[in-house]
Specification:
The chain has a three-stranded antiparallel beta sheet. The chain has two helices and three strands. A hairpin with a 2-residue loop joins β2 (about 35-45) and β3. Helix content is about 30%, strand content about 45%.
Length: about 60
């Protein structure tokens, strides 16, 4: 069964660029993990400090590995 992992993040002011760079590196690493399907990062329209990271995995066990 496919698993969608949702992670809410509240960024500190002025750190968005640094955090998004780190998230891109983590996503690149995740692409090489067994069971990884896709991932995306969403930002709240009127508050760029609020983000939601969504990862899709083949099974929840793949995410825990």
């Amino acid at each position: 069964m496919t698993a969608k992992i949702l992670i809410k993040r509240q960024l500190l002011e002025g750190q968005a660029g640094e955090i998004f760079s780190l998230l891109n590196k983590l996503r690149t690493t995740a692409r090489n993990q067994q069971g990884y399907i896709t991932g995306e990062t969403l930002q709240e329209y009127n508050n760029s400090q609020k983000t939601l990271v969504i990862g899709t995995w083949e099974h929840i066990q793949n995410w825990f590995a």
